[in-house]
Amino acid sequence: MPMVSTDLSRKLNSIKPPSNDEKVAIDHILEAQKNGEINEDNVLYIIENINVAGRAPNKISIHMLNSLRDEIYMYIARYRHPVLT
Questions:
Q1: 40 half-sphere exposure, CB direction, 13 A CA radius
Q2: Predicted confidence (pLDDT) per residue in 53-63, tens digit
Q3: What Cα–Cα distance (Å) separates residue 63 from each residue in 56, 57, 66, 68, 72?
C-alpha cells in the first residue's frame, strides 16, 4: 500500500474541517484519523474501496450504453444514419 508523504500528511492535518452540517465522507475519515481511531493505512484502504465501488456501476453503465448504441445502429442505421440533436 502506498505511503503518504510527510508534507502531504502535514497539509492534511492543517486543513480546518467544515462545520458538522457541511461534512462529507472524507471529512469524517480524516477526523477519525486525527482522533487516533484509524491510522493512515486505514484511510488509504477506505478511499481505495470508495473509488473501486464507484467504478463498477460506471463499467455497467458504459456497457449498457454501448449495447444500446449498437442496437440503435443495427436497427436504425439500415435506413438512415442516426444523428444526435
A1: 11
A2: 777 777 778 88
A3: 11, 10, 5, 9, 14
Residue that is written with C-alpha cell 474501496 in the block: 49
Residues 41, 43, 45, 51, Cα dihedral to 10°: -150
Hunting for cell 484519523 — which residue is that?
33
Residue 14 makes CB contacts below 8 A (sequence gap 6+) with: none
Which among 55, 5, 54, 56 has a CA at the least distance from the CA of 25?
54
- Spell out the domain ranges in the chain: 6-76
The three cell numbers locating residue 71: 442496437
State mean pLDDT over 20-41: 87
Q: Which residue has the cell 508534507?
A: 7
